[in-house]
Amino acid sequence: MRWLFIGLLVSVGVTVGVASPDLTFMSTQLRPITEAEWVRTVLLPPFTEETGIRVVFLGVEEPELTTRVLAEYEAGKGSLDLVGDLHGNFLVYYKALKDLSAELSQLEALGDRTLAKTFVELGRIDGAQVYIPWMQATYVLVANKKALAYMPSRVATEGLPYLTYDELLEWAKNIYQATGEKRLGIPAGPKSLLCRFLHGYLYPSFTGAQVKKFNSPEAVAMWQYLKELWEYVNPAVLTLDSMDTALLSEEVWIAWDHTARVKTAILERPDDFVVLPAPAGPKGRGVITVLAGLAIPKTSPDPAGAYRLIEYLTRPSTQAMILQGVGFFPVVAEAAGAVPTGGLKVLADGVAAQSAAPDLLVSIIPGGLGARSDEFKKVYVDAFTEIVLRGRPIEEVLAQQGALLDALFRETGAPIPVPDVYLP
To answer: What's the mean pLDDT in 314-321?
Structure first.
């Protein structure tokens, strides 16, 4: 009986040891069943093999993570070691997160990864580095290589060129004059992402803000530009929700869209396309990023272990693994070199070049609007319809739609999305 009792104790001890994780990683990202299973069976095992640290990955909805982090912070004791979340969500509970300035310096000192500077700066809130950039989704410009022959001569074609919107207009015009065809594609169908092009790309590039300068002299100039650009946009886009099919049929040679909506074309014919950074306007290169970061709660039981996991997840090779496994793009410049040849590399090269642009103006999709988020989109799309398609006076339309936009943010109390400052 004595030896049986000792054996039971040993057995219980072993069982407890196996069941008790070394690190708990909770994330609002990669939570769908197939993605979460990929994280547990493919992404994390190499980390465990290398470090001996076991990780329990918990994919949850945003409210659950926020509530858990805040509750543990208030209690002064927690069980979450590392959290993964979107930029906008971190703004709600950033005071419960550890300042990772020292950890960021350690990552940079490794010399094998260059985190996108703009994304790092977004992670700095109230003077503290509350998260480290982890992965992103975004929108880019895709060009059939046939179109490169018509690019403005002053644009350097070595590498991936950083175009301006004026150069995009000239490029589209050159193609039209040479071929008689309108080969520029900007999706404008009923389920397209035209609203994102307007509020996250054109507005910041021309005015320096998504919302604050909606009705401004700079905005008037932007809409005048768009009317001129639209003369060279393929008319079929008014029925198209994405650009992949039009790129494959060569109905368009140059297209702007979300990476997920051009991915099929590039994967099918990787040798025929290049992915370019979005163009720049007078205020900079406005782009939308769906930016996910990694943060360590102040109540983390093992912040050192959590940092080791951050180090692993931001390695170029791991970033490339994430792209191949679940389609999220790297935030580390060197990751593009770790992606095998093919369509994914074409996409990764373009996204990396866009993220590294020195004039980048990152826009975040507005949060806090709740059930009224569709009203935000409608303001921009309705302005487009009235100004570009129906030819109504720009100032008149902006005054009407601007009043609706102001009321929306005033009534919901939602924070003005970045970039939200008046630039010189």
So the answer is: 96
